[in-house]
Write a structure and sequence with these properties.
Layout (H helix, E strand, L loop, with lengths): L1 H20 L12 E6 L5 H9 L14 E3 L11 H10 L5 E5 L4 H7 L4 E7 L2 H15 L6 H6 L3 H10 L11 H5 L12 E4 H6 L1 H15 L6 H11 L6 H4 L6 H4 L2 H18 L8
Parallel strand pairs: 1-3, 1-4, 2-3, 4-5
Helix pairs in contact: 3-4, 5-7, 7-14, 10-11
């Protein structure tokens, strides 16, 4: 509790400092928005956080995240309620930069799809997601609710199957990969939300940063030169603090998927790959 109070005190002091620093910058006609990075787990959350925080060097946005919100508590696996989601969204204020594994639920859509927010949604090839998930739960996050279970599995192949198929009979909800992505699909069809493939940062970072700036400027025009904004976002990227981005590679799933994994993935989430633009059909 004391740590949380201290963090909020520092956060508010930094926001005040930012307002003083950028006192000469006029607010947009609709007021300053909230920058919201929505991400599907294991899809570049930290990378998007870094980029959005880069706006704090050219405008009075917060220099650190207001908070991080996840629909599932990582330690217990408890699914947070609609009331908790609404309360978190209502706690955000103009000039906050924040991050979330946030479902496109009715309460979230109603709040986020307004002029109060500039929202972004980043996702990744679900095949790479399930591979990353295995490493994360098994090796990186020992407090994860499923860590002990993954440790009981004999090898990587069995763990990968679980990350694809989920754990249907578990007391802690863990759907298959298509079921885990389904609550996020609503963000894809919203023009108010900029959709970003994680892979875009690898294959076309300049183009991706330009799209991020365009989306921001459409809501909050700045007098700062575009080149200055782009340079600020580029400089904010720190691969050492973004494990997903550190390898700078895509398609890593090809190293780990065996014929059995391909077959069950096609059955469970083949249509999802087509919908997200990662495949044209089931012939992969």
């Amino acid at each position: 509790m004391l740590r949380q109070i201290l963090r909020q005190t520092i956060f508010q002091a930094e926001k005040l400092t930012q307002r003083v620093k950028f006192a000469g910058v006029s607010a947009p006609s609709g007021g300053w928005p909230i920058l919201l990075g929505i991400s599907f787990p294991k899809s570049g959350t930290h990378l998007l956080d870094q980029v959005l925080l880069g706006f704090s060097t050219v405008a009075p946005f917060s220099r650190r995240l207001h908070s991080f919100y996840a629909q599932y508590d990582g330690d217990t696996g408890r699914k947070r309620s609609s009331a908790e989601t609404s309360a978190w969204l209502q706690s955000l204020r103009p000039l906050d930069v924040t991050s979330a594994h946030l479902f496109a639920s009715p309460e979230a859509l109603q709040r986020v799809l307004t002029s109060a927010f500039v929202p972004y949604f980043i996702y990744r090839d679900p095949r790479d997601v399930v591979v990353s998930h295995v490493f994360y739960v098994t090796e990186m996050e020992k407090n994860h609710v499923h860590h002990a279970y993954y440790q009981t599995l004999p090898n990587f192949d069995d763990r990968l199957k679980v990350s694809i198929l989920g754990i249907p009979d578990s007391a802690v909800e863990f759907p298959d990969i298509a079921g885990r992505f389904a609550p996020y699909l609503g963000w894809i069809d919203c023009p108010e939300v900029l959709n970003i493939h994680f892979e875009d940062f690898i294959h076309d970072r300049p183009g991706t940063l330009n799209r991020i700036v365009d989306h921001f400027l459409a809501r909050a025009p700045l007098t700062v030169a575009r080149e200055t904004i782009l340079a600020a976002l580029e400089a904010s990227i720190n691969p050492q603090k973004s494990p997903t981005f550190r390898s700078g590679k895509t398609g890593e799933w090809k190293k780990y998927f065996k014929a059995e994994h391909k077959a069950i993935f096609k059955e469970i989430a083949g249509d999802l790959l087509v919908q997200l633009g990662y495949e044209r059909d089931q012939e992969w």
